[in-house]
Amino acid sequence: MAGNWLLPAETTTSGRPVLRPGEVESSLQPSVDLLNEENPNLPPLKSGLLVLTTHRLLWLPNPESTTSPAASAAAAVPLAAVVQILHSKKSIKGMFASPRVRFQVSITPEYKVQEKGSKFTTITLVFRGKSDPDSFVGKFWEAWRGRAWEGAVSGSDSGPGRVELGDGGGSSSSDTGLALKMPVVGLSGILRKEQEMWESTDKSLQDAFQDLNALMNKAKEMVALAEKMRQKLLSGSTSQANAANDEEMGSKEEMQDWLLSVGIVSPVTKESAGALYHQELSRQLADFVKIPLERAGGIMNLIDIYCLFNRARGTELISPDDLLRACSLWEKFNVPVMLKKFESGVMVIQNKSHSDEEVFSRIKSLVQKPDALKTGISATDAARTLGIAPAMAKEHLLAAESKGFLCRDVSPDGFRFYINIFHDIDPNDAYLVKEYGIYDAWIRAAIASR
Amino acid sequence: MQTLGELKLPQFFNYPPYFTLQPVRETQEKQIQLWKELIIAYCRMQKLFIIGLEEDFPLFSNPAIERSLNYDARSAFLSALVSDGRAEWTDKGHRQCLILWHQIQEWADIILRFVKDNGLEDSVMTLEEMRSGVESRGTDIHGMDHTVLTRALKLLENKGKLAIFKGTSTDDEGVKFSV
Fold first, then answer.
1. CA-CA to A128 of 20 to 30 Å: which in A14, A234, A382, B52?
2. Domain at A356-446, CATH from 1.10.10.10, 3.90.660.20, 3.10.150.10, 3.40.630.30
3. Per-residue buried b or exposed e for A413-450, using 16+ beta carbons within 10 Å of the residue's own CB
4. Chain B CB within 8 Å of residue A94 CB
5. Which pLDDT tens digit goes with each residue over B78-90?
6. Which CATH number is associated with domain B104-177?
């Protein structure tokens, strides 16, 4: 296995690195080799994607050269293990070879990269693509000196539920069972707690708006706050499931929705990804749409995704054109979502598992229910049953109609669809009803009940 | 079972999509087929020859399910009959349709049978007598459309089976059979 002298790095199914809490990408470089010139026994990592984050240096294998998304081959060097970044010497010779960047990391005697290791080794990065190593080195220095991982380490030690943000109001209830301590439980309890927390964070919000730099500093805190509240709501809903009524659950879910949409911590930007912008945006989008898609029943309007995605990105907005390009790149990656264009021109994003056949069979069973046989179904009925938007449901119904499975009924009552019984009627004998056919079933439901 | 006049209506007459012209080709073909047969059966039963597209026609609506055919649908079904040769537009604007629930050749055969059955081989009859006389009662000829009758008789005249006499008015028109 390549790169076992480095630390393993997780990737998502679409091939994006899984970032730690608070970790932000700062530069992406394509076609980079990572090798150790001092010890040729260590297998070099050839021509992958180099991702510099505030915490780590990640090397991801080239998705085109590997058959599987080989998550195991992705490697990481924690910036904490970096001891020194070496200045590259400019020479005539260097102008013709691929640019190289060297840095020293601490290692264990067994040649594994580790923080505070007893030995040092030099890692060489070879930039084979059309990239700008000088700006990369600049960002590398910046990230290394920023020492962002130090805050994260102390945070992860105390567990995600215990990040101290506000004062007592926010943290008193996390583990001690709020049902016992709070005089008012349930929705009002949560709301009151929320209120207290808002008051205590109101000050930090005001500070944040002092100037943009301050906002940038506070942004991480805000996202952490949102995440924390979400966690708390989650734990709250399980601990007092008995007491919670439907209304309460509903408002909790709503609250969770708001908080969920707050944050992509490390949005892919043109600045950080450069030439890889659309490709990386595409991967990030694929990861992002999973949750909203699940909630929407496996299919969503492209417009809705655009709104959600931009909202989650906060200030780093993307254009509709970028979104479309990101979606159309999905075909090249092994991602579980796809872009679909209906005949009417409506574009949707759907899970690959959310196949048309499945929707079709659900519509099929829906229109054969006695009520639907009798009065047909509208797009609204179908939307309710399928758990998708009415406009989308109508597209599916029209698709089923064009396959000859449904028939339309346009009347002052509206636009309704019925199961197609025309195929089942004998053209030579209009009065003949084949037993147990669709026509027979329709007669039983529609005429018999009259 | 629902009836309209004396016609027993098929069950699908209560199927709401039957009254909306279907956009999908295969389905529409089947729908048109069923409508054509029903229109012919109804006209034959009611001895109707003319359908006006803009007038109320009992077959084209079903009060039980509150559905009726719109203009496009009526026009599509009648056009299909016209292209089958079982109907003809009587005007250029395609607003009125003559339904030939027997083709002209069939009408000619029916007239010949009627002449033989009543022993009228060498007699003279006015057209009006044929249409409303005692002899024709109970046959399809009774109450027959004037235009259709004239065309059937012309066909027979060309075959030398009879001679048509032009009168001063339509009442005076007559035929001499020579079968």
1. A14
2. 1.10.10.10
3. eeebbbbbbbebbeeeebeebeeeebbebbbebbeeee
4. no
5. 999 999 989 999 8
6. 1.10.10.10
